[in-house]
Amino acid sequence: MSPLPNITRASWIMVGVLGFVWGSTFMVIEIALTGIAPFWLATFRLAIAAMVMAVFWGKDGFKMGTDPDNKPHPMALIWAGAISSGVPFLLLNWGQQYVTSGFAGTSMAAVPLVVLPMAHFMVAGERLSLRAVIGVTLGFCGVALLIGKSALDSTGADLEFWGRMACLTVAFCYALNSITIRRIPPINSTALTTIMMATGALITLPFSILTEGAPGIPPLKAFVALIFLGVVSTAAMNQLRVLVIRSAGPTFMTLVNYQVPVWSVVLGAQVLGEPLPPTLLIALGLILGGVAISQWASVKRIFVRG
C-alpha cells in the first residue's frame, strides 16, 4: 500500500513555484521568439532539457525501472515523446507568433477538460459523472469563446485564428499524452522524461532544418530566454513536479492547472503590455470554473487533508 500524501508547507511552496514558472513560460516564449525562429526554439529547448535531465538520470544510475520483464515498447516511448513535447512545442511556438502569451496560457487550462472525456472512452474504469459533464460543458463554452472572432482581435495578426487553433491543439496533445503515460509500464520518471525530451528534439530537428535553414546567433535577451525555457521551465520543473507528486500526491499536483493560465494572463499584461479584452477574462473564468466543478472531489480532498 502506498503511503498517504503528506501535504506540508513545502508542498504548497513547490506547487506555487511550479504554477508561477509554468505560467511565465508563455511570456518567456514570446521573448525568445524575438530572436529565435519558432521551430529552432523548440529543438534547442528540448535538446537543452534532455541534456539536463540526463544528468539527473545519471545520478539515478540510468535506471529504467523495477521490473525488467515489463519494459515499455520503443514505439510507445517515441509516441510519448512526439505528443508530449515534439509536436506541442512546434505548434505552440508557431502559434504564439500570432496570439498573445495570455491566450496561449489560457488555452492550456483546457487540458484537464479534454482528459476527462478522453479517459471515459480510452481508460477502463474511468467514467464521466454528471458533475464532470457539467464542468466539461462549462469549460468548453470558455474554449469556444477563445476561438471566437472577438476573443483577441487586438493582435491584428493575419493568421491569428490558426494561431489560436495551434495553441488549442497543443492542449489536445497534452491531454492525449496524459492518457498515453498511464498505459506505459511503470519506469523511472526521470528516465521517461529524459527519453521523451530527447525524442522530441529529434522529431523537431528536421522541421527546423527544412523550414528555417541553419540557425543564426540569437541576441542576448532571446538566448537567456532559451536557457530559461530549457533548464528551468522544462528540466528543473519536471524534477520539481516529481517531488510534488511523490510527497503530496497527484491530486495535489492538479492545483497547478488553476495557476498557470492566471499567471500567463497577468504576466503577459504586466510585463509584455498585452491587452486584456473582456472575452479573454470571461473565457478564463469559464474554463477554470469548469475544471473546478469537474474535479471538485479531488479539490475537496486537497483542502480537507491540507
From TrEMBL:
This protein's UniProt keywords: Membrane, Transmembrane, Transmembrane helix
A GO CC annotation given for this chain: membrane
InterPro entries: AA-Vitamin_Transporters, EamA_dom, EmrE-like
Protein topology in the membrane: Multi-pass membrane protein
Localization, UniProt: Membrane
Sequence ranges assigned to domain EamA in this UniProt record: 15-147, 162-293
Similarity comment: Belongs to the EamA transporter family.
Protein name: EamA domain-containing protein
